[in-house]
Amino acid sequence: MVTRLSFAGVIGRVFIWSFLLCLVVVVVYPLTWMVLNGFKTNTELFGNPFALPLQWDWGNYAAAWNRGVSNYLTTSILVTVTSTIATVFISAWAAYGLTRVDIPFSRTWSTIILGGLMLAPTVALVPLVKMFQSMGLYNTFWALLILYTAFRIPFTTFLIRAYMIDLPREVDEAAEVDGASRWTAFWRIILPMCKPIIISTIILHILFAWNEYLFAMVFTSGTDVQTLPVGLTSLMSKHGTDYPVVFAGMVIAALPVVVLFFACQRYFIKGLADGIGK
Amino acid sequence: MLLTQPSKPVEGATAALTAAAPPPRTPRRRGARRLVGLSWIMPAVVVLAVFVYLPLVQNLGFSTIEWDIYSGSQVFIGADNYVKLAGDPIFWSSLGNNVLYAVISLAVQVFGAIALAAVIESIRSDRWRRGLRAVYFIPSAISLTVAGLLFYFIYEPNLGLLNHLLDGIGLGAWAQPWLGQESTAMIAIIVMSQWQGFGYSTLLFAVAIQRIPSELYEAASIDGIGPVRRFFTITLPLVREMTGLMIIVTISGAFQVFNEVMVMTSGGPNNSTQVLGTWLYRNGFVRNDFGYAAAIATVIFVVTLGIALVQLWINRRRRVEW
Fold it and tell me: Cβ of A218 and B285 within 8 Å?
């Protein structure tokens, strides 16, 4: 490859690299500031926002933990794990039924399930509140589990279905010849073959459920059922003047997903690409 | 954001049909088997029918009712809520804010992101490419709530980074109560949202650019075509599909904005940062005017469904063209 290092080329390259590095600072500096503020005292925070904390004190983290963050974290983990399991299984079944089982009105069912992709959750908010109140599920863990599952089934089914369609037909025929039931064929053969897309959907669902705010805010109010995003805003309104504790809570909320991202970056990127590019 | 991603839902239905299982022996057994087959999709269908479609239909009914949840009184008022909507200046300014959101997000998170992704992918070092993509993505992983709170503090007049930074570089006169005044609050929120979201779309465009065969770029540079022209003649046309998708997702997302506004200003000061989602929330759950909130929800429904249908239509047409 021939590299021409003309004057304009050099200027261009310097310009581009300064821009890219400036952008890195714009992204990283506020995040660093957030982490550092979690270690400061209120006086330090108001004194000079750029200064480093005088001592690395974990007190704010402990305070945040004791003022509800431990509860929020537990609920977030519980809601995320259960809704991921429910969504992925229900969607995988549906995708299997739509692509590899002979069912009447298959086309109509596809439209009903995947059509849900076009509907914004905000639109259903008012009736859902009424419904959950009358069912006695308002302000419970179940409300979030149900909503996070229901509103993610179309998208998750869409992804798994697109993958299952491409699996060779012979697989099912071989299973049938071997006398395997549909149930066995699904669990033993098709589902394992779909592992890459299942991992992608799990990651996308975790990212969604961990960070979801609208439903969590409208459907829960007690400390024991609130998830981290809503819990953080209550921490803020309850202890509004004790900012370093809020910063500590923000770091606790942000850390798991950031760690997850760096730990399985490859799957993460693949998941995001699958999620939108198919 | 991905929740309502309006992807091509119906087109796969034909593929599902043609992919049906081989014809079994007798017609009667086949009929019974086909009914049993329905059990695979029933959990999904039932959950969607009860918790997604039913509320959607109910919402239309609710929007024709004057409702008080505490007294429980319901009066049918026909289209009155929509008439009220048409005369509500805050509804129109909310809609305007959603449009502003959409326009700025399109510029930054679609067109800005394509350019940024192209620049990143042109870097020779694999480590730098991966590193930059990952760093830019972090804000998208930390959630809008955390990002919103963080920027609430950055914009804060006393301890905030922004005013101190302006002070530090001698522009102290520019310091503002960014979220506290009508003239800057909406823009401040939108800027935060771009900070949070640009890495996400950049990552997606980077993936799309990686799928372009490198021979095209090599051939072009041998012909002496510079990087800017390569961008316009190779990259841009070949990521067209992703661009179309991102435009739809971005516009649709802009009309569902809720989280960041709620966290940073709750629609204030003086309702200047209300968007459709927060205005719905305020009317339905603070003022308990469920009927009016349902009418706002119908507007969001029409707009987002319209955008999704446009996308479906574009997909169909492109299919025919090819």
Answer: yes
